[in-house]
UniProtKB/TrEMBL annotation, chain A:
Residues 184-302 form the Aminotransferase class V domain. This is glycine dehydrogenase (aminomethyl-transferring). Residues 379-484 form the Glycine dehydrogenase C-terminal domain. The glycine cleavage system catalyzes the degradation of glycine. The P protein binds the alpha-amino group of glycine through its pyridoxal phosphate cofactor; CO(2) is released and the remaining methylamine moiety is then transferred to the lipoamide cofactor of the H protein. It comes from Streptomyces formicae. PANTHER family: GLYCINE DEHYDROGENASE (DECARBOXYLATING), MITOCHONDRIAL (PTHR11773:SF1), GLYCINE DEHYDROGENASE, DECARBOXYLATING (PTHR11773). It catalyses: N(6)-[(R)-lipoyl]-L-lysyl-[glycine-cleavage complex H protein] + glycine + H(+) = N(6)-[(R)-S(8)-aminomethyldihydrolipoyl]-L-lysyl-[glycine-cleavage complex H protein] + CO2. It is an enzyme of class 1 (oxidoreductase).
TrEMBL record, chain B:
This is Glycine dehydrogenase [decarboxylating] (Glycine cleavage system P1 protein). Its EC number is 1.4.4.2. Gene3D superfamilies: Aspartate Aminotransferase, domain 1 (3.90.1150.10), Type I PLP-dependent aspartate aminotransferase-like (Major domain) (3.40.640.10). It comes from the Bacteria. SUPFAM superfamilies: PLP-dependent transferases. Keywords: Oxidoreductase. The lineage of its organism: Bacteria, Bacillati, Actinomycetota, Actinomycetes, Kitasatosporales. Coiled coil: none annotated. The keyword Oxidoreductase applies. Residues 21-455 form the Glycine cleavage system P-protein N-terminal domain.
Amino acid sequence: MSAHHMPVSVTPEDARVAPKPRLRRYQQASWDEKLVFELGAPGERGVLVPAPDPSIDVPEIPAALRRGTPPALPELSQQQVLRHYMRLSQENLGADLNIDVGQGTCTMKYSPKINDQFVRDPRIAALHPLQDDDTVQGVLRVIHDLEQLLKEISGMDRVTLQPAAGSAAIYTNVAMIRAYFTARGELEQRDEVITTVFSHPSNAACAKTAGFKVITLHPDADGYPDIEALKAAVGPRTAALLITNPEDTGIYNPRIEEFVRIVHDAGGLCSYDQANANGILGITRARDAGFDLCHFNLHKTFSTPHACGGPAAGACAVTSELAPYLPYPTVEFDGTRHFLDHDRPQSVGKMRPFHGVVPNLVRAYAWIMALGAEGLRAAAETAVLNNNYLLHKVRQIPGVSVPYAEGRPRVEQVRYSWEKLYEDTGVHSEDIGLRAADFGTHYWTSHHPYLVPEPMTLEPTESYSRADLDEYAAILAEVAREAYEDPETVRTAPHRSSVHRVRPEALDDPKTWAVSWRAYRRKILGEPA
Amino acid sequence: MTSSQAQPPAHPYIPNTVPAVRQAMLDEIGAASVEEFYADIPDAIRLHRPLDLPAPLTSEAELGRHMEELLARNTSTRQALSFLGSGCYQHHVPAVVDEIVNRGEFLTAYAGEPYEDHGRFQALWEYQSMMAELLDVEVVNVPVYDGFQAAGTALRMAGRITGRRRLVVATATDADKLSRIRDYVRPDHDVSVVPVDRETGRADLDAVRELLARGDTAAVYAESPSAAGLVDESLPELAELAHAAGALYVVGCNPLTLGVLAPPSSYGADIACGDIQPLGIHQSFGGGNAGFIATRDEERLVAEFPSRLFGLVPTTVDGEYGFGDVAYERTSFARREEGKEWVGTAAALHGIGAGVYLALMGPQGMREIGETILALTAYARRRLAHVPCVDVPFGEALHFADFTVRYSGARTAAEIRAGLKERGIFGGVPTGEREAVYCVTEVHTKADIDRLATTLEEIVK
């Protein structure tokens, strides 16, 4: 008889399992994984390639265009490759794993798994974009119908789904604005774009790339874009206003119609960056405030996965006045069949190869079809409820403040400040974010410039339960407590992640930055090139 | 009616819609209703009606059935025999690539720090490093949107470095890509497209020389293979011409060729760019494209990248690999309109997938797939040249995957393409009234190509 079958007297007290602690005992996988170049052995293979029929010769390659030395790629067997990347995946914290409310301004929400099944189906994954229209009626209908859904959601007249992401959509809108004024012979005169400092940096950067001068409005004392500054900036040189509402502070600008009117009166166009649309779906629309163009990030508002930073997908919606400038081809429906229309003489041209990031268009379509009008409204209202609930909890944490618009509600996110905690303890917002990683979550401090000192932007969206929000607030409260009582623990975090704090100094020096293994070996290890 | 029937069920994607939970949260905040949180949105711009959308397919089963009906209206390149390429390629995607890119940890992550997202940083840095080996350079970016964007940005980088206005396109380049480039460089550059020699398909060096003599060229742009699939023997000479004129040489290339073909840096390219879709990314109706830009490790070049560059650095613990952004101040994230062009969410996961692909293939796999495609392309060109009323131009010039055919019979390219479709073959993208482009890859067999040829014999008259 083995030892564990020996009769032992057990009391109920012995059998009792202690309840889980208030905060989870999290430990991220840490594999101390080597670089892929340090693995494998010469001659190992991960996959074999079909050889051509023996009767077919490989043609002669001209000497100047023939590869001399084989590329020094790693040589690994298949399972080694799999294991390496599985380990790296375990050292990564996707939204499927954590309460991802700390990636504010990015609208992290649940991406339904069934939608991934649709895009993996060969009838999406193995479609070629140059197939005859008759062989792709299903996907053309998805694109066409998603455009119709977004027309209603934005109130606009026409939509393109070609842009590859949100910033690409901002650029597409700027390109259409440029084409519009070019067609009217006004581009020489209208060379300025006005934006706000609390909008995504791509608004300013895309306008500059497209050749416009950029004027940035700063917030007034209450955090709203300064309307007096707008009045001073606007004039015959104004091509457009690019603005987000609510801005990244989560504050909705109640005078948005007036902003639009001021710019229209000066002959400019107004483009609505709807990166923060999640809290206002079905509540108010770009067209209702008078905008001429808007865009959506399908990976934010419409639930396509963020994929470590893309592929994403963008949608631009415009009034009929701007419609002639949409990228070609457009997807049309003649009542019987869907087809691509390349004959668009005033089009800005192509923004991306083919027809957009189609897998994400399929996912966004499926998401909207699963929710309908009532569901979109419920998503918006719940996102706003969750945000104000989290706001209520977080503002009770010592050291946190909520700058601007005192007493006003926030829409779908809040930009907080740890300024007081920093003054009291010397612990930065970034430190708190890194310590939060020890509890299985994270936050990002959001965009430069840091007008709000020691910023933290939280955006709970509709996807997180009350218990999730309570847990997240409890993590922040715990880290703030530590900052006051044991600041060194916070300053040296993370302690339970795959790796410890990076020493970033080498990243900004041309002598030491190492963008590849071969650069690292030459510059840092001193190996011969 | 019971209370459970009276209350619509909570949507599975949205917790906290259960009335009791919602009420408890409102109570805790001290708010009467969600309306209070919308107090700043003026009534005049409120939508006082429900959105006019189709009735929702709330159950997963209903949604699945609806989507199945739509998918059934597509015919995939697995159901037909496809010879379509032209910028989107049908290659075998190894199962391990799909396994990794569909992991939720990667698929659903975003912009985490190097601590919670160490895996993403390492996987993308390794992608950069493997691409650097393939391209024989030291700097490759985290993927941009696609090859069109990569070309536009590479040319703008050359423009910023040289301060010059003209961009010369020397090899056959896809019309849609040219459209994108023209739009993208418009404020700062004029694009001069030099038509290739119609007989040889190669760059017209005299015409390029003539343009360069004006002394205002920022960059000469060439592609390997060209939009017609041709690997131009003039590629090294174009480098010499560009450099002699004080211009940079920018080469767009298909990275899948580089197991057998020389990397652009070896024949003088200052910037290489292109699309990684051939490296283990599904066609997805054109949704699988992602772009790369590559240079030597020179500060003047690195400083002009708008996109993210991940670097390897130590952490506070000896022996740990840490990662971070190289020269972040270049970017619009740091400096808004003062940054280089712009950076945002682009196509990072495709970089991870391409990295897995390269690790699986290794140097031998990359050589073998290159040889297989070169061989099959040559065979397809020879075989189709024997079809009556089909000419395969450009003689013995090396082709990779794509190639041009010209029809000399009565049928147009569009009619022939329609005839092929009726017989279950996708191919022959028209590039003129009687000209078309076909494509073969490693997924094709000799028998597939023979079937294409015999089918064309029936159609082309």
